[in-house]
Amino acid sequence: MRVFVTGATGFIGSAIVPELINAGHQVLGLTRSEAGARSLIAAGAEAHRGDLEDLESLRRGAAQSDGVIHCAFDHDFSKFVANCEKDRRAIEALGAALTGSDRPLIITSGTGMGNAAAGRPATEDTFNPSRPNPRKASELAGASVSAAGVNVSVVRLPQVHNTVRQGLITPLIDLAREKGVSAYVGDGLNRWPAVHVLDAARLYRLALEKQAAGARYHAVGEEGVPVRDIVEVIGQGLKVPVIAMSPEEAAAHFGWLAMFAGLDVPASSAHTQEILGWHPTGPGLIADLGRMRYFEA
How many angstroms from the chain centroid is the CA of residue 135? Predict the structure, then answer.
């Protein structure tokens, strides 16, 4: 297949590109820079200039392809609501180019969209559009273009990691470095799911090849890592104290991260593993955090 990949030079996309190429697919990668174009060409892909806000560039890329993997997202979480709306517009533009065909569109969401009840792992069969999480905009857009006849499926991501980046944990590390303490909320037993970036890339490929309209997949290697365990490893790596904070103190300390710091959002991938034959093999989150070089730029 000739696959249009948004976010192709980003953290996850740069792992998806070789995963697709090694499986025999051709890749058309979205990039907004000359440096990004060079890196895509060096990886064996073709570069397509544009960005998330250039909706015509998204439509052109999708129109030239046999399928689309949309993993680009603006990860400035201080503008989370606005960025979720930006993603909604991007999905609608990609879908418009695929309407009337059976070409697959794989979109990206978060595992939190599958949480049905407090303390229970999120599952693939759950989506509650009444939840306040702004990330629901992506799945609502996916449902909208699906109703228009587009073959849409969803990959939901947890904290995606290697020894360089770890999703929301990366800004948590930056905050601990800035404040001189590594902090958790309450008893710190709230859990975050996680997956290694190479396992996530393989799941995107399998989802693309499956072409199962309406499917939701959870890229979860670990159902729930206690935040206190994460914070303790960060404290050791940065050589700063590890402290507990009350929910009342959290807003002042964590800033925009406060909306995530106390969440207990475990997630299961049992159904995904069964139907796709996907079995994560990468290192765990704590292992990767333990191997980080905390004082290198």
Answer: 11
d(CA 116, CA 261) in angstroms, rounded, equals: 19
User: Which phi and psi angles does 163 have, rounded to 5°?
Assistant: -90, 5
Residue 68 CB neighbours (<10 A) = 29
Global pTM reads: 0.96
In the prediction, which pLDDT does 32 show?
94
Are 218 and 274 a contacting pair, CB within 8 Å?
no
Helix (H, G, I), strand (E, B) or coil at 194: strand
Phi and psi dihedrals of 4, rounded to 5?
-90, 120
- pLDDT of 297 reads 56
* Nearest C-alpha neighbor of 101 from the set 164, 152, 156: 152
Give the helix/strand (H/E) hosting 224. strand 222-226
Burial annotation 100-134 (CB, 10 A radius, 16+ → b, else e): eeebbbbbbbbbbbbbeeeeebbbbeebeeeeebe
At residue 295 the predicted structure's pLDDT band, cuts being 50, 70 and 90, is confident
Residue 11 clears pLDDT 80, i.e. is over it: yes
